[in-house]
Amino acid sequence: MSEALQVAEVRPDDPGLVASLAAAGLPVDDLAEPGRHFFVFSSGIGKVGYAGWEEAGDAVLLRSLVVLDGMRGRGFGRQITEWLLARLAGAGNSAVYFLTTSAAAAALGERTGFARADRALAPASIQATRQFSGLCPSNAILMTLRRDPMQPNEMRDLVRTKYGEVATQASASGCCGPTGCDCGGGKDLADKTRLMGYSEDDLAAAPDGANLGLGCGNPQAIASLKPGEVVVDLGSGAGFDCFLAARQVGPQGRVIGVDMTHEMLAKARENSAKAGAANVEFRLGEIEHLPLADGSADVVISNCVINLSPDKPQVFREAFRVLKKGGRIAVSDVVNMAPLPPHLAGDPGLLSGCVAGASTRAEIEGWLREAGFVDVAVSVKAQSRDLIKDWAPGSRVEDYVASAAIEARKP
Ligand SMILES: C[S@@+](CC[C@H](N)C(=O)[O-])C[C@H]1O[C@@H](n2cnc3c(N)ncnc32)[C@H](O)[C@@H]1O
Question: Pocket of ligand 1, candidates 168, 181, 244, 305: which has the most ligand atoms within 8 Å of its Cβ, to mutate?
Fold first, then answer.
């Protein structure tokens, strides 16, 4: 589509929404009922149309799509549908449906991934909607798009396989894979590491092979580590941040890296042996179930890992559990800035590549607070575009995710 749409949520009694739906012969009686969400879409040439959805159990019914007079025939219907699907992606719904009496709308649905469904076989939650049971004519065509979200174990396996390959490739060639959380191997690894916020001193200090260029920021920069502290690094990879943290906490302190990928752990341990780092250890484990005792750490750090977790609220609960009272979390990770288009949201390479699994700033702040943290701050780094644009060249992923510094304290 040529013209980017601006989108704003509107109230169900918005006069423009009600008048436009009524003029198009679409139902308006139930707009104010719970679980409905409506949006107005505009482009540079003015208001384009309205659309929304209603929640129906674990499914969603798209509805109220109207393209205004004078705006039809320009591809806006498709653009609006794609926006709705992107907005709903990753929201946990099992399938998206819509009802239409228009063959053109059904054809549009097919172009955006929907298929015609048998009304009699629609789930009970869809059959119970007022659109299905009365407001739309009984001959309306039902269209469906199954979501079948990736199961948590599938996501974990995908991520473990990818980082196992990255570690193996790094051991074999001294470099690593082509895509991110970008492994910027080769001659520009140092440049990419500088873009993440590391200093020349950091680059020189870590053992060879520890920096695989897999981060998206520098958690050390916000962690204010002090001598004697116990630090836990979630998803420690080949150990880059652990070795840097070990310098800061000194011989009285300790750093524990946790990673679920055997090959990555082996690489980190090999690097540790090379460096003779006595105050660093690496443990095999999932960050959702940390192999650490309650109240045993002063600081939890992590670099571009939590977005890869299939259960992010649980990661923050675990971080809270292992921290001592007054302990802090200092994380670099990607945050989602705009809904990904369906072709990017569903790309497994972008899920394991630290793009499609990113959560919004509001979600992260909410999960930290729910876990019990206070002084929650998520600061988005606008300058991370330069780093992120190379993760999937040509996909414009830098328009959808940005690196952020995530900080909070256990009271
Ligand atoms: C993008 S890399 C980042 C590595 C490291 N933090 C760095 O900056 O170099 C992600 C790492 O997190 C690990 N990882 C991903 N999800 C994990 C999980 N749920 N539990 C434990 N480790 C995980 C992967 O095995 C991989 O080593």
Answer: 305
